[in-house]
Amino acid sequence: MGSFIFNLMFMHTLRPMQAEDLPDIMTIQREVYSDELQETPEVIAQRLAQTPDLALVAEDAQGICGYLFSYRSRRGAITPLDGLFIEPANSDCLYLHDLAVAPRAAQRGIGPSLVKRKLKIARQAGLAHCSLVSVQKSSSFWQRLGFQEQRSINSQQAAVLKSYGVPAVYMLKTL
Question: d(Cα 174, Cα 148) in Å, to the nearest integer?
Answer without folding.
Answer: 9
